Amino acid sequence: MNADSYVAIAFWILAIGMVLAAYAVVALPRIIHSALALVLFFFQIAGLYVLLRAEFIAAVQVIIYVGAVTVLFLFAIMLTNRSYAPDSNPANRQWIAAGVVSLGLLGTLLATLGRQTWPTGGQVPANATVLLGQLMLGPFILPFEIAAILLLVAMVGAIVIARES
User: Fold this and answer.
1) Is pLDDT larger for residue 147 or for residue 160?
2) How far is CA 5 from the centre of its chain?
3) pLDDT, tens digit, for every residue of 114-125?
4) pLDDT (0 to 100) of residue 122
5) Of 8-12, 79-83, 135-139, 155-159, which range is least confident?
6) In this structure, is residue 118 part of a structural domain?
7) Which of 73, 91, 109 represents a domain boundary (last residue)?
8) Is 30 in the same domain as 84?
9) CB of 38 within 8 A of CB of 73?
10) Domain that holds residue 17
11) Does residue 72 surpass a pLDDT of 70?
C-alpha cells in the first residue's frame, strides 16, 4: 500500500465516524450525551483538516470548537436542572418531516456535487499559516475582533445567568 491508500482509508474512517457522531447528536435521549457526541464530531473534523495538510486550521478547530464552544454548550446544559434526566433531549412528532426534508437536501447536494469538477494536485504553500495570519490580521481584522467580542459577551452572559440561579 502506498501513502495515498492510507490517506483514503483514514478519510473513510473519519467520514463514517462523523456521520455516526452527527446521528448520535440528534438521536441520543440525554442532552449531555448529545453534547459529548458533538465533541467527538468536532475532533473528527480536525482529523480531516490534518488529512488536508491544514494543521493550523485543525489546531484552531480543536481550540475554538472543542475547547471553547463545546465548553459553553456544556456549561449551559449543566445550568438546567434536567440535564441528566432520561428525557432531557425528547423526540417529537416532526421527525418524519425532518427526515423527508433531510433526504431531499441530501439528494440535491449529491446531484450538485456529482456535476462539479474538482481540481486535483494543488500544492499547499509552505507559508500557509503566515499567509492566513496576514489575512486574518490584515483586511479581516474587523470580523476577527467582532467574533472575539461576541464570544466574550456570550461568556459574560453565561456567568451572569449562573450567578442568578
Assistant:
1) 147
2) 26
3) 898 877 766 766
4) 67
5) 79-83
6) no
7) 91
8) yes
9) yes
10) 1-91
11) yes
Same domain, 13 and 82: yes
> How many independent structural domains does the chain possess?
2
Residue 132 lies in a domain: yes
Q: What is the DSSP string of the chain?
A: --HHHHHHHHHHHHHHHHHHHHHHHHH-SSHHHHHHHHHHHHHHHHHHHHHTT-HHHHHHIIIIIIIIIHHHHHHHHHHSTTTTSTTSS---TTHHHHHHHHHHHHHHHHHHHHT------PPPPTTHHHHHHHHHTTTTHHHHHHHHHHHHHHHHHHHHHHHH-
User: Who contacts 151 (Cβ-Cβ below 8 Å, separation ≥6)?
Assistant: 68
Which residue's C-alpha cell is 502506498? 2
pTM, 2 dp: 0.66
Q: Does a structural domain hold residue 96?
A: no
What's the pLDDT score for residue 83?
A: 58
Q: Is residue 40 part of a domain?
A: yes
Q: Is the dihedral of CA 43, 47, 52, 58 positive or negative?
A: positive
* Total residue length of the chain: 165
Q: Once rounded to an integer, what is the mean pLDDT over residues 152-160?
A: 82
For CA atoms 53, 55, 61, 62, give the dihedral sign: positive
Rg (CA), the chain: 20
